[in-house]
Amino acid sequence: MKKANTIPAVRPVIPVSDRLGDTKEYYFSTKLREIAALRAAGKDILNLGIGSPDLPPAPEVVAALTESARSEDAHGYQPYVGRPELRTAFSSWYARYFGVTLDPDTELLPLMGSKEGIMHISMAFLNPGDEVLVPNPGYPTYRSATELAGGVVRSYDLSAASDWLPDLEVLESAGLDRVKIMWINYPHMPTGATAPPDFFPRLVDFARRNGILLVNDNPYAFILTDSVQSLLSVPGAREVALELSSLSKAQNMAGWRVGVLAGAEEYLQTVLRFKSNMDSGMFLPVQRAAAVALGLGEDWYTKLNETYRRRQQVAFRIMDTLGCTYDRQQVGLFVWAKCAGSTDGYGTCDRALYDHDVFLTPGGIFGSAGEQYVRISLCSTEAELLQALDRLAVSAASDDSQPESRHSW
């Protein structure tokens, strides 16, 4: 019998780039693989971790996509700066909801997702050694994009005591000579904090005094908020600021990858120099459908928030069951809560996953200031949230009958 040929395992011998450094694979990338493996092993895992909307886009948005996709001329390369109709739709959307007038030809750059925009900005403006102010806790991509671009992360701590706002006087007193960019994100993820009316003007003055490019990442503007805010509404903001917006959350188009960078033409042209070498334009039917989504009326956002508000109430009950404390005024697509006593978020989330088949997000993945927190996504149905509540409530009841095991939560 002929022996089958075997291919020896290949050991990588090419070293990784210095640029990659200590940058790790994105937390949710690895965790989703683990959840898939648990499910394959027969576990019924409820995923309350990731902010990927489970609701569909508006029917007219899907119709616009399919209708455009049938056109024979819809499948070629598209302009690097996006189609004029999409830029115009973004301009009208900014004027209607934010009260900000933007030139669609020069002050708006459509992106294939705002996450990509974070990398584009970092690569376009940072030199090796430039410092970047990154919120702690905050979206992990601000840190990883800075590191990949050769910048130096300079964390600024946020806390519940300061309403999750940075102390600008403390930052200034420490010296900012090497700081090039400051990332902000209000409504804030993961904490759900909003910016008070006087905060954006103070930030713009701070950035102007210190020669810092201020970037507001703004994907949660419409989710459970009483009013929407744009950093660019501040007079003079365009001298020192950019803003990222996205259709992922409020338009339920996360997988479509549509975002926009707004700001002064000079800044956008700099970003375009990098971006135009990284992609070949967005699929035309997606752009046409996105333009329809941007034209949705207030009733769309009202209905969306009615759903999220009901889900939020169940998520609050889950946090109560875990013994966590939280701010009921928080906004956005998540519920953020502090663990009881000395319990940390990682331990709480591990017990929820491995003992009760419920995946929650540990606050520590957003920075050291989040280590005693957990986060629940509102991107699951009420039925799924209630099922998670039942599973975790069983554990809490069991702990009540056995005081010595109250370490569970």
Automatic annotation (TrEMBL):
<comment type="similarity">
    <text>Belongs to the class-I pyridoxal-phosphate-dependent aminotransferase family.</text>
</comment>
<dbReference type="InterPro" id="IPR004839">
    <property type="entry name" value="Aminotransferase_I/II_large"/>
</dbReference>
<keyword id="KW-0032">Aminotransferase</keyword>
<dbReference type="Pfam" id="PF00155">
    <property type="entry name" value="Aminotran_1_2"/>
</dbReference>
<protein>
    <recommendedName>
        <fullName>Aminotransferase</fullName>
        <ecNumber>2.6.1.-</ecNumber>
    </recommendedName>
</protein>
<dbReference type="GO" id="GO:0008483">
    <property type="term" value="F:transaminase activity"/>
</dbReference>
<feature type="domain" description="Aminotransferase class I/classII large">
    <location>
        <begin position="43"/>
        <end position="392"/>
    </location>
</feature>
<dbReference type="GO" id="GO:0030170">
    <property type="term" value="F:pyridoxal phosphate binding"/>
</dbReference>
<dbReference type="InterPro" id="IPR004838">
    <property type="entry name" value="NHTrfase_class1_PyrdxlP-BS"/>
</dbReference>
<dbReference type="InterPro" id="IPR050881">
    <property type="entry name" value="LL-DAP_aminotransferase"/>
</dbReference>
<dbReference type="InterPro" id="IPR015421">
    <property type="entry name" value="PyrdxlP-dep_Trfase_major"/>
</dbReference>
<dbReference type="InterPro" id="IPR015422">
    <property type="entry name" value="PyrdxlP-dep_Trfase_small"/>
</dbReference>
<keyword id="KW-0808">Transferase</keyword>
<dbReference type="InterPro" id="IPR015424">
    <property type="entry name" value="PyrdxlP-dep_Trfase"/>
</dbReference>
